[in-house]
Model the fold of this input.
Amino acid sequence: MAIRRKGGRGPARVIKEDQHKINDKIDAKEVRVVGEGIEPGVYPIAKALELAEEQGLDLVMISEKAIPPVCRVVEYKKFLYEQKKKEKELKAKQQKVVVKEIRFGPQTDDHDYEFKRRHARSFLEEGSKLKAYVFFKGRSIIFKDQGEILLLRLAQELEDVGKVEQMPKLEGKRMIMMMGPKK
Done:
């Protein structure tokens, strides 16, 4: 990034350097040219720049890694605007995955289990993923079969709203099971 000072005083303004190589900054000998009103093809760089200049537009390198590199004849500012707009659209369409956790003990009694099951059901209904785990403290690790039974029971009771993505698995002092919502 280049830093320019205006008049030598005041705060420094940071100016972003171009993300793409344009016009004279393109260092390839030959380029594949595309654009509106131009016959697509491979041209020497001088001819490609001449084509862009005739239309009063810029020659912008789109793909540097291609052989020969691909350049488009467009108005650079408009090209950047369109790209920014596309990125914004893609970002808006992305879904954020929310993972909610529910913790059990190996000997969780029925009332606590029912309370947590109701919460798990609401999490899955709202579209969140569920991470249910049994935490073993101290010597309670000897009850790992009870923990697995508890998680499998939960999965069975919630199978109408969610599906098991990861079966119960012991990781350290935790037995973890992942569930996702049914579409």
The two ends are 46 Å apart (CA to CA). Strands lie at 2-4, 13-15, 30-35, 41-44, 58-63, 70-74, 99-104, 129-135, 162-171, 174-181. The helical segments are 45-54, 76-93, 110-125, 144-157.
